[in-house]
Design a protein that fits this description.
Helix 1 runs antiparallel to helix 2. This protein is mostly helical and 215 residues long. The chain has nine helices and no strands.
Length: 215
């Protein structure tokens, strides 16, 4: 029995010595892990709250777009951009609202939201679509050089045909038929490679433009 007590005391002594050496580190790590867990849960809660509020505002943009209410769409999209710019809803709202603004003849407002998306968007596809629409707005305003600048960077393969087609429109409007013809041919080549949404319809439109250039 005495031998057992002695062994037990030795184990307790070793445990105390080990704890004296490593106990502070273990406690620190345990507290850090607990704080990290709480912090992560808080971050997830914050993200979900942000997404929920942004989603509610995006629904307002959608409803306004259906009614053609440019002011309501612009205001709701502006709130999302201001408060929830880190969510995907901000990019989608800017793109949707810009279309409503343009349809309502509010080119300046459409341009502002498209420019925000081009400069701040995280989704490459949405940024390309925004560049394309922004160039169209600039063409409508007669800002041909600015429109061409927006079309200069290489877009996603699915949009190459549309970018080349709009480039041809800008060049034709600038009084450069030879360059416009080359751009339209580039559009046809891109469409022939496949992957362009609405490719068949776009091909016929581009062919008509080429015929018009030929006079």
């Amino acid at each position: 029995m005495a031998v057992y007590d002695l062994e037990e005391q030795e184990q307790i002594s070793e445990l105390k010595a080990w704890w004296a050496q490593y106990g502070k580190l273990i406690t620190t790590l345990a507290v850090a892990a607990a704080l990290a867990s709480v912090g992560w849960q808080g971050f997830r809660w914050y993200q979900n709250k942000q997404a929920s509020e942004a989603g509610a505002l995006y629904f307002v943009v959608q409803q306004a777009a259906e009614r053609g209410d440019a002011q309501k769409a612009r205001e709701a999209a502006g709130q999302i951009i201001e408060k929830f710019s880190g969510t995907p809803y901000a990019e989608m709202a800017a793109l949707l609202s810009a279309g409503v603004q343009f349809s309502a003849g509010e080119g300046k407002n459409a341009r502002a939201q498209l420019e925000w998306l081009v400069e701040n968007g995280d989704d490459p596809a949405l940024r390309d679509i925004a560049r394309l629409r922004l160039a169209s707005v600039l063409l409508d305003e007669g800002a041909h050089a600015d429109a061409l600048a927006r079309l200069q960077a290489e877009p996603d393969a699915a949009l190459k045909g549309r970018f080349a087609d709009l480039r041809g429109d800008v060049l034709a409007a600038s009084g450069k038929p030879d360059e416009a013809r080359s751009a339209y041919q580039g559009a046809l080549d891109a469409i022939a490679q496949g992957g362009t949404e609405g490719g068949e319809t776009l091909r016929e439109v581009v062919r008509l433009k080429l015929q018009a250039l030929e006079g």
